């Protein structure tokens, strides 16, 4: 039984992630969507449980998916889970340098290969960080994320605006 690991911050999950995970699920018997506990880039907008719950909801139609989380090295988690491969999406040439470096490092550390799927051109401009930024300033991201994520983004930024107005945070 071949197991793939789709790792990421998923802060929040976008239609681009879903595209890659759905396609991975066609090729592998079991797909573990591995949410990093503490993304290095920024403090996450959604905490780990929220990110996991959103993934669980929006990927519920796929029978061979598990949602899990990890901290530390991805390859240690991959080994613990018996994963055969890491699968990632490549949006553009700009992703390539860093992804290549990580794939080679992970291969060297563990022998686990990384497979890349080209992102659908429909979603090649999309990233979680841009979705967060656009949503924060009231832009319409409804076509870029699942409805549930869109709702959560609206609630989150509404709550933050209320907190600012009332001096909460
Ligand atoms: O969604 P992201 O933020 O682009 O995901 C990046 C992620 C989590 C896949 C990457 O940062 C990662 O694998 N982090 C785990 C730490 C690790 O193993 N670092 C060495 C990579 S060679």
Task: Give a brief outline of the structure.
The protein is an alpha/beta fold and 169 residues long. The chain has 6 helices and 5 strands, in the order βαβαβαβαβαα.
Output the keywords.
46% helix; 6 helices; 169 residues; 18% strand; binds 4'-phosphopantetheine; Rossmann fold; five-stranded parallel β-sheet; alpha/beta
Q: What does this 3D model show about the protein?
A:
- It contains six helices and five strands; from the N terminus they run βαβαβαβαβαα.
- It is an alpha/beta fold and 169 residues long.
- The chain has one domain: Rossmann fold (3-Layer(aba) Sandwich), CATH 3.40.50.620.
- The protein has a five-stranded parallel sheet with strand order 3-2-1-4-5, sandwiched between helices.
- The chain binds 4'-phosphopantetheine.
Oligomer: single chain
Number of domains: 1
* Mean residue pLDDT: 95
Q: Strand order, biggest sheet?
A: 3-2-1-4-5
Number of strands: 5
Question: Helix share of residues?
Answer: 40-55%
| pLDDT < 50 runs, ≥5 residues | none
The CATH architecture assignment turns out to be: 3-Layer(aba) Sandwich
Largest sheet: 5 strands, parallel
Q: Ligands in the structure?
A: 4'-phosphopantetheine
Helix count, per DSSP?
Answer: 6
Integer-rounded radius of gyration: 16 Å
Helices and strands: which structural class? Answer: alpha/beta
CATH topology descriptor: Rossmann fold
């Amino acid at each position: 039984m071949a197991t793939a690991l789709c790792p990421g911050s998923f802060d929040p999950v976008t239609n681009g992630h879903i595209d890659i995970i759905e396609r991975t699920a066609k090729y592998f018997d079991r797909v573990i969507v591995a949410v990093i506990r503490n993304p290095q880039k920024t403090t996450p907008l959604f905490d780990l449980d929220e990110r996991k719950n959103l993934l669980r909801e929006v990927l519920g139609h796929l029978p061979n998916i598990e949602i899990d989380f990890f901290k530390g090295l991805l390859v240690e988690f991959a080994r613990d889970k018996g994963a055969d491969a890491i699968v990632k999406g490549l949006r553009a040439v700009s992703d390539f340098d860093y992804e290549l470096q990580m794939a080679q490092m992970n291969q060297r550390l563990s022998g686990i290969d990384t497979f890349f799927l080209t992102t659908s051109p429909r979603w090649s401009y999309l990233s979680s960080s841009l979705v967060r930024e656009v949503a924060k300033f009231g832009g319409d991201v409804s076509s870029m994320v699942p409805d549930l994520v869109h709702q959560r983004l609206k609630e989150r930024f509404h709550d933050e605006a209320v907190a600012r107005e009332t001096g909460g945070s």
